[in-house]
């Protein structure tokens, strides 16, 4: 494709250095994304300070006030001036320390960040002192000299007016009612792990605390006092470990719910080396086990604490430390999965089955769209007991479900029970021999490439499998013979769409928009959507420029877009037709603005600058 020179050559814009305060505010907005992120950082600091009692007070979902008080070792008077500067920490001094870090903080970023997006006041007293000190911070520095004051043991940190200088975020948060819920949820999680610490969490003005735990030697007691009897009485203790340096080294212990525990949502409380983290791969692996063994109780409650040698955990992979990455994660996940599986099976057998009434299960699982009946019947013959981890594969290359971002709203639409895949494939076959497509050798090469790389075994599996249902937002369960497969619908769909485009290249049927849509407005919409949670408005002019440029670009290319892709743009810059990639599948029209923006931004401009 030829590259045409732009008609009007624009001067390149000047590049300038951002003000430091702007840089800091942007960075702070990433560390402290929500009120609950501030609470997490503060509580972790209190835990790092060896506190035995931590209480949290919240006003207006955290936007008006977050107050965290502890009875820890306090902060030295001499350290107060640099306490809230970025990258000041007592927990790390050289990079190598990260390998063996045991404390929860290490970046020295949390308190600093809070001072850039809120008003922070610290009151603290160290051992042996007669009085404490109080000092307030703004933008990383003290607002005044520390003042002597009366204080009880430990540290109290108050954040007022969080996000006062981030209008858009404040607005979105003001309308959301669940910020306090998230904080309560967070404290509940901490409370059942750190059972030697007592936690409380209270809404300002409320007489009763919503989380109230006292130090106890029994984890089950802690769970009972925080999550209630209905959870605590339906738990099974679980343990696993491995000490083989060639595969994995870890210890795990926890509690998992039994067949009597029925909930709408999975609760997974996971601590790795005492850090509260998320691990989508593990969560998904366990949910699959529950679906297969306890279909009626398939949304479990799971508390799990995993310890590994510190040098096997990279704690520095996520700005808010929410995720960690593990050495041999795949092996560990698989081992834990199989232990959970056998525990659940045993518990299932030793029970009476009154709660687990299973309908007469045919030898082949009955398959409906949204329901799973994969339960081995309780009378289960031994031959059926293939460990789940042997018949179900999870995708370990997907570290944390980041694919969610690309998710189509309703994947079932095109991976429906009557397997539209087969329909697709036959239409693909019809198209494959179209002479005209072969005219374009570059396209033909890409198609040949796909055919060459096609794995016939996998193709057979997809072709002959039965769709069972969605395991979660991303994975569909497919059955092929006696095997159960998890198929990443997002990846499958992308690949399918890509192949469709190649095979229908220049021969698309069209979807006619009921009303032609002006490109420039579509692009503006997409741009606004993109940073709806940032402070917008300020760069509306910039957005207009981008929209203008992209529209121009698309207009220039309209002939090519029409001929090859059946994307119609009329002379007034209106989009009127889109290609049909998959028969009977209408794409989500809400995504058209995003599509047009990508078309201009990622595709055409790439070609523009490309070789
Ligand atoms: P980090 O936790 O990564 O070191 P922070 O910004 O969260 O960074 O905290 C900076 C330092 O302030 C900590 O290293 C610690 O020395 C001190 N500190 C913060 N909160 C407390 C607290 N509640 N009790 C004692 N010291 C604290
Ligand atoms: Mg910290």
Tell how many strands the DSSP assignment holds: 22
Tell me the β content: 15-25%
The low-confidence parts are 352-438
Largest sheet: 9 strands, mixed
Average of per-residue pLDDT values: 80
Q: List ligands, each type once.
A: adenosine-5'-diphosphate, magnesium ion
Could you say which overall geometry the principal axes of the C-alpha atoms support? Answer: globular
| Fraction of helical residues | 25-40%
- Calculate the terminal CA-CA distance, rounded to whole Å: 10 Å
- Total number of helical segments? 18
Structural class call reads alpha+beta
Rg, nearest Å: 29 Å
Q: What features would you describe in this structure?
A:
The protein has 611 residues and is of the alpha+beta class. The protein is 35% helix and 20% strand. It is built from 18 helices and 22 strands. It has helices spanning 20-31, 35-48, 110-117, 167-175, 179-193, 219-227, 229-232, 280-293, 329-349, 388-391, 420-432, 441-453, 456-464, 489-504, 519-530, 540-556, 558-565, 592-609, and strands at residues 53-59, 65-70, 119-125, 132-138, 141-142, 147-149, 154-160, 198-203, 211-212, 235-244, 248-257, 267-272, 275-277, 301-307, 313-314, 325-326, 466-470, 475-480, 483-488, 509-518, 568-569, 574-580. The strands form 5 sheets. Strands 1, 2, 3, 4, 5, 6, 7, 8 and 9 form a 9-stranded mixed beta sheet that branches. It starts with 19 loop residues before the first helix and ends with a helix. The structure holds adenosine-5'-diphosphate and magnesium ion.
